[in-house]
Amino acid sequence: MIRVLVADDHHLVRTGFRVILETEEDIEVIGEASDGVRAVDLATSARPDVVLMDVEMPGIDGLEATRRIVAADTGPAVLILTTFDRDDYLFAALEAGASGFLLKNGTPEALIDAVRVVARGDALLAPEITRRVIATFTRPGMAARTDGRRLSELTPREHEVLVLLAGGASNAEIAAALQLGESTVKTHVSRVLTKLSLRDRTQAVVFAYEHGVVTPRG
After folding, report:
1. Is the pTM of this model over 0.85?
2. From CA 20, how far away is CA 185, in angstroms rounded?
3. Neighbouring-strand partners of residue 79
4. Model pLDDT for residues 156-175, shown as the tens digit of each residue
5. In the listed set 84, 101, 124, which residue is the last one of a domain according to the structure?
């Protein structure tokens, strides 16, 4: 059972998320928070697997609440949901340690899938988000960083996995591309994150483009 905490300052929004999620047999909403402070407290006491986090809330905002929640090694995954399609929110959420970022105008199916994705330890980086990450780190005048020491620690196979991660590939897609079993892919992904000191797949995408491991096509 995936235990979910919903943090949003609008009661109707929280209720709507609860109704959507609790139609699924494997998802349970175990609490609601109307501000960032309460979200942090419940994330600690109720021990959810996933926190759905609004950005703009009273007290402390969702970005600061996310930083505090993920600072704990055993903290839940945080999925940012917002009506604001803004790059500053997107990158602040990624830097805060969020495992995913969704707009509230998405479908119920997309929300349910996102909760399952981050609950199993993956990061949710939709194609449109990937494009914006690429655009940010490849705009004219921005030189790629280099981190040869950390990158040199990757094996050739792990480097291939990082490249595929940067394209937003799932474990199943990486397995198919490299003709490996999914369990083997999970091991490679884990080693890539550990060697590069990255928290999750989202940070791996940012790292790959920021350090010139991959470059955009076209």
Report:
1. no
2. 32
3. 52, 100
4. 999 999 999 887 788 888 99
5. 124
